[in-house]
């Protein structure tokens, strides 16, 4: 399996500690630590390094919110949370050094996490004053919150999750401890990053079909300009145009290639800037189909083109893998709505499993794309664009509906419960009724 490339952003001690943990416990992850001296630098670090990675891990909420508020999430991103468990070590160190639990001020942890942890340690929650906030306030505000409490005698110690705040409070003579997530929290964050990264990789490899229809056919003197524009579109999408005749062209590419030309969403600048009207009066309709298989992408492309031509205005029209229609893209008010499945077989199975028709189509397509009679939940989950946990729920619904059969189990080599093995007799409703017979390992 191709390693999931993970960008780790945070102060050097936490970033390198997470990278070392991943090296020992998550060999399928390829981590690149990118560090900063101050949290305000997180947006620039993220912007300069997110390309060529599948997911980003921020070592805390402060760098995560500051970076994603500025740049959004061009790749999936998660952060290491500061839960109540992060307080235990710092509180223990204070009690060991002072022999008592003095008043403390706390940031980065929510109220419930603080109260639950203090009650579990048999400490009166009233000793803690909490800086509650959404996202992350400035370092200056955090330092002032802790400093004023000690200057006014309301607290004796500060507990902060922000390294820059910790360093400033220490340098100014305040009593402060830095709260740090336990290893278990780091591991759960890496697990989430692995799942998000795998889903991202699978999504970027979705197939895209681009169908171009020119109406009316250009005259002999104008055909060259049309071909040149189609050729430029193909180069931008790393594709090769196939001329089908009668003013029609076909291109194949991937979703990742389209998204690499990011322009406010899924659609690439190459598509949004493709000319829809030429000086000689010819008008272009472009149907873009995205799917989990070449067949599905081609069908979606044909449907998008047909719906676009019905509007007679020209432009680019898209049907995504979840059967969402959008178009014309780039216009001020594009239409956007969900298409319903027209396959009675898919609808029947979807009702039996209590799934949506789009989700049922995804299941059927995934079963035909495994390339093996047996596969694990972790292997089929990216095909479904779901986490392993949600994939197991889907398989349980298929079993309850009698669409798959439990045929055995296998013991994993490392830790973990035995994997259940299923056999499916589901016809592939997306391939005109061709039957498939696969074994599924959950």
Which key phrases capture this entry?
four-stranded parallel beta sheet; Rossmann fold; 442 residues; alpha/beta; 4 domains; globular; seven-stranded mixed beta sheet; single chain; Alpha-Beta Plaits; 22% strand; 16 helices
Per CATH, the class of the largest domain reads Alpha Beta
CATH fold topology of the largest domain: Alpha-Beta Plaits
Give the CATH architecture of the largest domain.
Answer: 2-Layer Sandwich
User: How are the strands ordered across the major sheet?
Assistant: 10-11-9-12-13-14-15
Tally the beta strands. Answer: 20
Q: What is the 3D form?
A: globular
The portion of residues assigned to helices is 40-55%
Give the rounded overall mean pLDDT.
84
Give the end-to-end Cα distance, rounded to a whole number of Å. Answer: 18 Å
Number of separate domains: 4
Structural class: alpha/beta
CATH homologous superfamily designation of the largest domain:
Reverse transcriptase/Diguanylate cyclase domain
Number of helices: 16
Radius of gyration (CA) equals: 27 Å
Portion of residues in beta strands equals 15-25%
Q: How is the biggest beta sheet arranged? A: 7 strands, mixed
